[in-house]
Design goal:
195 residues; alpha/beta; Rossmann fold; 9 helices; globular; disordered C terminus
């Protein structure tokens, strides 16, 4: 087995930034609407989704390994308020990195409009992103998964998408490859167009 995680981390971080911007602007939907001859309405989002500019947004980094540390560098010019939770960080180290330290994933989620999960799938981290974490996120928040679905309680994720207006950028699933019939049955319509 060859570990390519370090060499791929910059590309994954850039892809995560692209997915964040897509969610903020709902770019895939806007393009599809324009191609169909329509135009996206300019009025405010009635569901109060986090949207618009990345500048000034509250970003939470769940895990601060190679991918999320690079993501942090990439968003540094946007003036985001960036907080992190990682067992290897403490308040002093977080401050040196320009981060607000949080003591738990729930505390991080409560302080985030955009929640970026880069936790490695270890025995101790399986399903770490669970219902209490999703419940702590604001209604209409954004969720970007740059790790594996093994660190997420997948039913709790879909529940947050369906019932809390969470918008998610996901390209990995618990069972892969996803069969066509399972895809439409288990993944909410709002997420199907964003993967």
């Amino acid at each position: 087995m060859i570990d390519t995680s370090r060499s791929m981390s910059p590309s994954i971080a850039e892809f995560a930034l692209a997915r964040t911007l897509n969610l903020l602007r709902d770019i895939p939907t806007a393009i599809a609407l324009m191609r169909a001859g329509g135009w996206k309405p300019s009025e405010a989002d009635p569901l109060a989704h986090v949207h618009g500019d990345l500048a000034g947004k509250k970003v939470g980094l769940a895990g601060y390994g190679a991918i999320n540390s690079r993501y942090h560098q990439l968003i540094s010019g946007f003036g985001c308020q960036v907080a992190a939770y990682d067992p290897t960080l403490d308040t002093s180290r977080a401050e040196q990195l320009g981060l607000t330290y949080t003591g738990s994933l729930e505390e991080l989620a409560a302080a985030s409009e955009i929640f970026v999960v880069g936790i490695p799938p270890l025995k101790s981290s399986l399903r770490a992103i669970s219902k209490p974490v999703f419940d702590a996120l604001p209604i209409g928040g954004l969720f970007v998964l740059v790790s594996r679905m093994a660190v997420v309680d997948e039913p709790a994720l879909w529940d947050a998408v369906n019932n809390r207006g969470l918008r998610a950028a996901i390209d990995v699933f618990g069972a892969e490859p996803v069969s066509p019939d399972a895809h439409s049955a288990s993944i909410p319509t709002c997420c199907q167009r964003r993967i």
